[in-house]
Amino acid sequence: MLTGRAREQGERPRRWLQVSALVVLAVALATSVSAGQARAAPSTTPQIKTMAVSVIPEYDQPRVLVSFQGEIDGTLPMELSIRLPADAEISHACSLTQPDNGHVCESYTIDPDGESSLLKYQIVSPVFYVEYYYGSVSGAGQRNLDFTFWPPYPVESLQLWVHEPARASDFALSPGPGEVVEDKGSRQHGYTYTNVTPEQPLSLQMTYAKSDAQPSVSPSAAGAASAGDSGRMALVLSLVGVAAVAVVAYAVVSRR
Questions:
Q1: Inter-residue contact 178 to 192 (CB < 8 Å)
Q2: Over 50: is that where the pLDDT of 192 sits?
Q3: Nearest in space to 58 (alpha carbons), one of 166, 130, 172, 200
Q4: Residue-wise DSSP of the chain
Q5: φ/ψ of residue 77, rounded to 5
Q6: Which of 65, 128, 182, 241 is the most exposed place for a label (fewest CB within 10 A)?
């Protein structure tokens, strides 16, 4: 017959084994839960496959018109968050649907965020389109304008075009462009970027002179085009011209 002390000594291993078993079970459960959470919530950072950015100083107003279009790879619908200049005035924040490039323009918010602003709106298709104005110029004389583009997500391939205003002289960009295309009296300066990340904003400076304060396109013509979303886009793209697009496409394919 075991004494009380012997019984207690005999029960200690059993209690230790029970405690150890509980600890192992708890660790196994925690590991299982963590693994399940990891499987349930994989990394879903969107990626932008291609993007085209157009910068047009003094297009139809004494400001800079910027438009960009991108194709995103992510779970839809999703909220798109894009950093813009602090004084940006939004014209369009849309999704483009196929097969006819129909515009789905959602309500948006734009809030101050330090020295810039943050545009947020929901996209319902992989292709998105944003158009805005920023900055200002007045009178005739020298212009010195800055432009910065903040990629909202990593971008595989990005084309950026800067259009010279009508009747501009001594137009210069810093850094210099990789492509210069002239077509039907207009001149565009192109940049090509690959694997751009949100931590790498693209910045450039534009300098030129004008002897007048008139925009390149009359406000009435621009207003008539903007009666439909696709009309404004077509008018903006017409400044590039079919020949310019062909030259750029050939250059890109040749380099590859």
A1: yes
A2: yes
A3: 166
A4: ---HHHHHHHHHHHHHHHHHHHHHHHHHHHHHHHHHHHHHS-----EEEEEEEEEEETSSSSSEEEEEEEEEES-SSEEEEEEEETT-EEEEEEEEETTTTEEEE--EEEEEETTEEEEEEEE-SSEEEEEEEE----SSEEEEEEEEE--SS-EEEEEEEEEPPTTEEEEEEESPPSEEEEETTEEEEEEEEEEE-TTS-EEEEEEEEESS---SS-HHHHHHHTTSHHHHHHHHHHTT-HHHHHHHHHHHHHH-
A5: -70, 160
A6: 182
Neighbours of 84 (CB within 10 A): 21
166 Cβ contact list (under 8 Å, min separation 6): 186, 215, 216
User: CA 175 to CA 173: how far, in whole Å?
Assistant: 6
Q: Quick one: which of 56, 252, 43, 249 has its CA closest to 135? A: 56
Q: 220, 187 in Cβ contact below 8 A?
A: no
Rounded distance, CA 16 to CA 32, Å? 24
Q: Which of 37-46, 79-88, 143-152, 189-198 has the lowest mean pLDDT?
A: 37-46
What are the tokens at 238?
């017409």
The whole-angstrom separation of Cα 123 and Cα 49 is 16
